[in-house]
Design a protein that fits this description.
Helix 1 crosses helix 7. The radius of gyration is 26 Å and the shape is flat. It has a four-stranded antiparallel sheet. It is an alpha+beta fold and about 350 residues long. This is DNA-directed RNA polymerase RpoA/D/Rpb3-type domain-containing protein. It comes from Prorocentrum cordatum. Belongs to the archaeal Rpo3/eukaryotic RPB3 RNA polymerase subunit family. Keywords: DNA-directed RNA polymerase, Transcription.
């Protein structure tokens, strides 16, 4: 396994987990959780599990998106195909769409037994606007409404599928439309725009319009070691120059003008500090390596209110999808039945 110990980065190890001797037991430590931003640290595993989780968040967590648009009137300067494409990219609330087959959410349209849409695979929206004023009218996602045609009988108001972001009650409607509305088209006087569209379930592997997050990235834990004796031998100007060599300001001077690591979590492994030390002939003054067993994740939502899916929900869904895919592997390889899976919601 000599090749496996080589690195793509500065000669360090790319995998420190002893995967050939002991099983992975991933642990998650959540450091920040809000509807539009989640940060957590994954430990006691290797890069294969971390990257599998990241790629599932980016490619296999399902959402709802506009799939079909029936345009009746379009007096705008935008072609019908452009309008249909714009509608497909509008974010839609998808909090209970269903992550794995055992869930009771939506099913994919191609797998549904209905003929032309039903409450279990489709949500219908409409847009019907006419500009009656002698000025340009901006049509935004706020003008698109759920018709309620495929509303489920037992659905709660909070479960309604709608466009996001929602109206901001703290500002007036005109300002909200101008600052927060996603523009669909602009109309002159007496121009109108009318169509119906249907939202259906899918995953980002099919099309980018089903993307549940704006970004999902991870960073390795930095290991920064400094030689205090060499640093103390620098003049004050050299210490300032060394501190300023880091573009992320990881190093700083303390009250006694000694160099110390102030913001380790901001390190991006650019090696500017290492290059500065080598230029002075002091290559051992500072070393920067990656701890390839610790992964700091950052997951951001598409909209400020956490749409189309709350990112806490997306992270939980990614864990459920990964667990279910492993169960499918065991079923195919050994014939094991899938009798249990991670719960949809956290147990009380």
């Amino acid at each position: 396994m000599a090749a496996a110990s080589l690195s793509y980065y500065c000669g360090g190890e790319w995998m420190t987990f002893p995967y050939e001797k002991e099983p992975r037991k991933p642990k998650v430590n959540v450091t920040h959780a809000s509807p539009n931003l989640v940060k957590f640290t994954l430990t006691e595993t290797d890069v294969s599990v971390a990257n599998a989780l990241r790629r599932i968040m980016l490619a296999e967590v399902p959402t709802l998106a506009i799939d079909t648009v029936n345009i009746e009137d379009n007096d705008s300067v935008i072609f019908d195909e452009f309008l249909a494409h714009r509608m497909g990219l509008l974010p839609i609330t998808s909090h209970k769409v269903g992550d794995i087959p055992p869930d009771s959410g939506y099913v994919e349209y191609k797998q549904c037994t209905c003929f032309d849409g039903c409450p279990y695979c489709t949500a219908e929206f409409k847009l019907d606007v006419t500009n009656t004023e002698d000025k340009v009218m901006t049509v935004t996602h706020f003008d698109v409404e759920n018709t309620g045609k495929y509303r489920r009988d037992n659905a709660l108001p909070i479960d309604e599928v709608k466009m996001v972001p929602s109206r901001n009650p703290d500002i007036d409607e005109e300002t909200d439309t101008r600052e927060n509305g996603i523009i669909i088209a602009k109309l002159k006087k007496d121009q109108k725009l009318r169509f119906e569209c249907y939202a259906r379930k899918g995953i980002p592997k099919y099309h980018a319009k089903f993307m549940p997050v704006a970004t999902a990235i991870y960073q390795f834990e930095p290991i920064i070691r400094t030689n205090k004796q060499m640093l103390d031998g620098l003049s004050l100007d050299e210490r300032i120059e060394f501190v300023q060599s880091c573009p992320r300001k990881v190093f700083d001077l303390d009250i006694e003008d000694n160099v110390h690591v102030a913001r380790k979590e901001d390190c991006i492994f650019c090696d500017e500090c290492v290059a500065k030390a080598k230029a002075w002939g002091k290559k051992d003054m500072v070393t920067v390596k990656m701890d390839c067993g610790v992964f700091h994740f950052t997951v951001e939502a598409v909209t400020p209110e956490g749409g189309p899916r709350n990112v806490i929900d997306v992270v939980r869904a990614a864990l459920r999808v990964l667990d279910y895919k492993m169960s499918l592997f065991l079923k195919d390889a050994y014939g094991d039945k899938i009798e249990e899976w991670l719960p949809w919601e956290r147990p009380a």
